C-alpha cells in the first residue's frame, strides 16, 4: 500500500536525521517506527515477555554464525581493548 503524507517540516527533519544516523532511507525508517507501535502500546512487563518479544521479531537467533556467544563477546571485548587510537 502506498500512502502520501504531508509531514510538518520539523518532524520531517527530525525523522530524516534519525534515519541518516542509521544509514536508512527515510521511508524505511518511518516504516520501522510505525511497526514498533504495538510494542510501545503494550510493552513487556517481565523478562519472559521481553524474550518472547525478541524471539517473535527475530532478534534472538538472528546471528546463526555465532555458535558460542560468550567466546564471541570475549573476542569483541579483546578487540575493543586492543584497537589502535586514531
* Number of DSSP E strands: 0
Shape: extended
The SS-based structural class is: mainly alpha
Largest sheet: none
Number of domains: 1
Distance from N terminus to C terminus (CA atoms, Å) equals 46 Å
> What is the typical, i.e. mean, pLDDT?
89
What does this structure look like?
- The chain has 86 residues and is mostly helical.
- The chain contains five helices and no strands.
- The model has no long low-confidence stretch (mean pLDDT 89).
- It has one domain (9-81).
- 60% of the residues lie in helices and 0% in strands.
List keywords for this structure.
single chain, mainly alpha, 60% helix
Question: Topology, please?
Answer:
Elements (H helix, E strand, L loop, with lengths): L8 H13 L4 H10 L1 H5 L5 H11 L11 H13 L5
Please outline what is shown here:
The chain is mainly α. 60% of the residues lie in helices and 0% in strands. It is extended.
Amino acid at each position: 500500500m502506498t500512502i502520501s503524507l504531508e509531514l510538518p517540516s520539523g518532524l520531517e527533519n527530525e525523522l530524516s536525521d534519525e534515519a541518516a544516523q542509521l544509514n536508512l532511507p527515510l521511508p524505511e525508517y518511518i516504516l520501522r517506527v510505525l511497526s514498533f507501535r504495538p510494542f510501545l502500546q503494550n510493552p513487556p512487563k517481565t523478562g519472559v515477555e521481553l524474550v518472547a518479544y525478541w524471539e517473535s521479531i527475530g532478534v534472538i537467533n538472528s546471528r546463526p554464525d555465532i555458535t558460542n556467544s560468550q567466546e564471541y563477546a570475549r573476542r569483541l571485548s579483546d578487540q575493543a581493548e586492543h584497537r589502535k587510537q586514531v
